[in-house]
Amino acid sequence: MDREQLAALLAAVQSGTCPVDEALLRLRTMPYEDLGFAKIDHHRALRNGFPEVVLGEGKRAEQVIAIAERMAATGGNVLITRLDAVAAERLRAAVPGFAYHDVPRLAVRRARPVKIVGRGTVLVVSAGTADLPVAEEAAVVAEMMGNTVDRLYDVGVAGLHRLLEQRDRLWAAAVLIVVAGMEGALPSVVGGLVERPVIAVPTSVGYGTSLGGLAALLGMLNTCAAGVVVVNIDNGFGAAAAASRMNRDSA
Predict the structure, then answer these.
(1) End-of-domain residue from the set 69, 85, 109
(2) Each residue of 151-206: pLDDT tens digit?
(3) Deepest of 2, 8, 64, 176, by most Cβ within 10 A of its Cβ?
(4) DSSP one-letter code for 108
(5) How far apart are CA 46 and CA 5, in angstroms?
(6) 97-128 pLDDT, tens per residue?
(7) Where are the alpha helices (DSSP H) in the chain?
(8) Nearest 5°: phi and psi at 146?
(9) Which CATH number goes with the domain that contains 129?
(10) 116 inside domain
(11) Could you give the C-alpha distances from 91 to 39, 73, 79, 86, in angstroms and in order?
């Protein structure tokens, strides 16, 4: 339940169109619903501005389906990250309305149109095509969180002219999410070109001494470009959540 849903329910009680007993019935799973193996936080949208996001990785398909069913019953949008294709097919068969984005492994149920609450555009920039799973995770999540999203892919430092040709798009963005593996240099370059916040996302893409993304993570943490912050390896979701808060009008 988000602010709009709760406000509508309280208004209905106030006007007399919704009996108190019915309102109590609808609120009975607040602040969370205990399924035994999971406690669904139905208050998350009220506190943080976006419903609880389900991590599909490490859960059995039956658990994901059970959680999704209860979240879908509230009438809100549902987002499941890191869900493999087999589990996604079972989810779509069990709970109507889910779409699956195979590149970022995201299952999305859009029960209501997403209201744009971001003040400007979130630009997702990726160094290479191999970084697309993480970049697309960030892009789709940012869209679900109410942002206008632009994408600028395969503009890594091995061919810097590709990035520099797109300087107008870099300058137009309100927040930039920059995704890179290998040595992780791209966020430093972007950070030196723009005045907006840059969220750097290291990926696990790279050869042996990339150490599964650790080299990119350390490179980004050691950037000399001001205004660059860093999330964990392959954490496109975390970057999108941070960008959404930066891009949202506090009022």
Answers:
(1) 109
(2) 999 999 999 999 999 999 999 999 999 999 999 999 999 999 999 999 999 999 99
(3) 176
(4) E
(5) 10
(6) 999 999 999 999 998 888 898 999 999 999 99
(7) 3-15, 20-26, 44-48, 61-72, 85-94, 132-144, 160-164, 167-172, 186-191, 214-221, 236-247
(8) 95, 30
(9) 3.40.50.1970
(10) no
(11) 19, 15, 12, 9
